[in-house]
Design goal:
The complex is a heterodimer. Chain A is flat and about 50 Å long. In chain A, about 60% of the residues lie in helices and about 0% in strands. By secondary structure, chain A is mostly helical. By secondary structure, chain B is an all-alpha fold. Chain B has eleven helices and no strands. In chain B, α8 runs antiparallel to α9. The chains are: A mainly alpha, B mainly alpha. The interface between A and B is large, with 87 and 105 residues.
Chain lengths: ~110, ~200
Amino acid sequence: MFIAMSLMLLGVMLGRLLRGQRWIGAPSRCIAPAIMLLLFSLGVAVGGNEHLMRNLPLLGGKALLLSLAGVAGSLLCVAVIRRWFRDFPPAPGAGKRPQTPVEAQPPHGGQ
Amino acid sequence: MSGSLLILAFFGAGVGLARLGLIPRYFMEHDVTLYVLWLLMLLVGLSIGADRRLGEILRTLRPRVLLLPLATTVGTFAGVAAASFFLAYSLADCLAVGAGFAYYSLSSIFITQYKGAELGTVALLSNILREILTLVGTPLLVRLLGPLAPISCGGASTMDTTLPVIARYAGREWIFISIVHAMILDFSVPFWVILFCSL
């Protein structure tokens, strides 16, 4: 079960060592096709499974409940930590003026 | 957004072709996904290790910045734990789905491998929905709760797919914290998902 995790850490170390090689950007460009292939095969597994196909709307409902719950929890925690970011200019030099979360007004600079 | 549509299209194509019986038996009987997953993990690691921004961002990191990914993690886990009371899935299953933090591709593949296609499908849909909620809800979230809200809502997607909309509505000065937030969550997704799947 930890093979995948070890492979990622191996990748990080290899990437660090090989940084600056001209071809090092190539693996990153293979990520998107690999993800497409994996999701295609996930689709095949779902489509070939009668039980799953009958329950797809129900699964979608459960998925929506889980995402809304996760977002709601995150926003509650943000409300708690927000006080520590009141005087926070996150990017040095990028923020022209310190902006408090309460004052923030979207959008900046019109279109 | 076009990225998530493409992902959904490939997923849908797989479902459709399997329904029509057009998938060769070999592909149905031999599980190649595990090996492609291993390859993918190596590629993700390589791209993180080779990224020059990583070192720069780690050097300029202030401890306070870490509060935001921490809040996203704690809040998401608390939220999905509460939701697990209303669902037939176990607490660990719900936590595994939540631990995708909108990083739908990797988390749904892991969960399919370790927990089966049903929970994997829920994870895919749930995490895509989280990204869509962020893309659609960012203007409102900024107005109601401030610029930290859409970043937390976007989870691990705030350094690529949802970064443009966050920069537009929260302001460009939040780009840095948005990227750091996503990098930390991105890195933690496989760890949390594997942990909750093995419980």
